[in-house]
Amino acid sequence: MKRVSKLVCLFLTLIVSQTAIAQDAEMADGMRASGKIYVVVGIILIVLIGLVVYLFMTDKKLSKLEEQLNRTSKPKGV
Amino acid sequence: MKTWLKVVAVILLFYVHLAGMLGDVPRLHILNETIRALYFHVPMWFGMCALFLVSVYHSVIYLRNPTVDTDRKAVEYANVGLVFGILGMLTGMLWANYAWGSPWHGDPKQNGAAIALLVYMAYFVLRGSLENQEQKARLSAVYNIFAFAAMIPLIFIIPRMTSSMHPGSGGNPGFNMYDLDNRMRLIFYPAVIAWILVGVWIASQRIRYRKIQDQLSDLEYEKSI
Fold this sequence. Notes:
Helix content of chain B: over 70%
Structural class of chain B: mainly alpha
Largest sheet of chain B: none
Number of strands of chain B: 0
Shape of chain B: globular
Oligomer: heterodimer
Radius of gyration of chain B: 20 Å
Number of helices of chain B: 7
Strand content of chain A: under 5%
Largest sheet of chain A: none
Largest interface: A-B, 27 and 26 residues
Number of domains of chain B: 1
Distance between the termini of chain B: 36 Å
Structural class of chain A: mainly alpha
Order of helices and strands of chain B: HHHHHHH
């Protein structure tokens, strides 16, 4: 029983020291904890949505132009 | 470009933007949270290489069988590829300013990429300086093959022969930095696929635009006769 608890203790200290080493580098944990990172995520998603909508709109405009061009050039037999 | 591919690109982009910002990343000194820039900076270069590859493919096809259609494709894929390259350069400079200390560090990969971009800019200078359409298409197709052949050693070979601060350099061809973390791979590779698809999407729009332009000028020419 004593050996088992010793092992458990060793294991726990290992985990704690490991995470302590890993947590050493400064990351934006505080920003995420206070929820502000989601503001940034929202902002980049707005940009992304705008970009995608714009690309689809350009697609539509091009299709219309192609149709128009086909209609005007066909009677001439081109 | 097929609509389902566009939808795939959009879904992947949303996933990359969400997971790229909120997902777990390795905790590294100096890099800190800027390691997430990998999801947005590196796909620009992958996208550029893919688009230049499609462009040079169409140039080879043009030289074997000259049609206006293949010339249009070669130009526009190179055009969008150059835009991706410029974006990759700007994002890299911003990242380097905080990770390496200054925006321009004379890193072999950075210098090589800059030279490769200049070589590709000369492609458009060459096109702009010729009046005859056929001559323009043929000469620029030949030059495009040279430009692609110059880009490969500049970006992939020379930086690996010397020491570079980019990961995977200095004799090690592996992406050793990504190998550290499989969580990052799950976001990085979808990002690469998504941005390549977006590049092809924009190129397809520009090809259609150029085709309409050509057809209109043909109509005007017919009218003038």
